[in-house]
């Protein structure tokens, strides 16, 4: 499967048509490069807030409320593009009103046959908790994508091993990570999480990122990181885990993911974290104990006396 991950430049669309035209051109480029699956970044829907007056787009609560009426045309846009381009599209994330003024960070996955699936973000960052209006998801899913079982792990979720391990045990061989980070430290944390999840589970990881600056938005103000396609670090696979990565102004990183080679790597593995995962659970290491040093010198002297 050829997969494209976006380093998506945040812009300032004047209306929904401008946003839609950008998605059309952007995804056509991924298709032109042979992609069967394209991954867009977290918080993509907040770019829509640029079309509102400064008082609305400059206030996160107001901008979240303002974009809700656009949910229908958002879904229609990406469904149409998936069908027209014969392309699976992970449309980043849309902060969706779940009732009572609480929004879930929902990542939609569109199929060329008109199907749509989604994964809500499970773990909230400090920024998201401080908003007081973003709620965590409560279900973990895996999906079939063109014959490959895949899971979605939205940004911070990729830093937690157990949910991704559960997706792996449900058959996921590919993890989609739409992300958005505003500091170099944040970008490093998500990248380390992606590398670790690939290593632990012998899976491919596809990470998309936001790029550029948007001073008009309290959430998309500064954006860092590079998009990448990641593999386990083992025989027959890249030693650093990086199959492809954006650089500079590149908008897409694209790579062919060879799932047969991934399976074959297990037979000649230098290490097999995925196979040895359950070895962590033997009784004597389920809980660490505090060990105190004993001065055997004094005890030995007393025994000799």
TrEMBL record:
PROSITE patterns: CN_HYDROLASE. Residues 1-259 form the CN hydrolase domain. The keyword Metal-binding does not apply. The keyword Hydrolase applies. GO terms for molecular function: hydrolase activity. Keywords: Hydrolase. InterPro entries: C-N_Hydrolase, C-N_Hydrolase_sf. This is Carbon-nitrogen hydrolase family protein. It comes from Thermomonas aquatica. The lineage of its organism: Bacteria, Pseudomonadati, Pseudomonadota, Gammaproteobacteria, Lysobacterales.
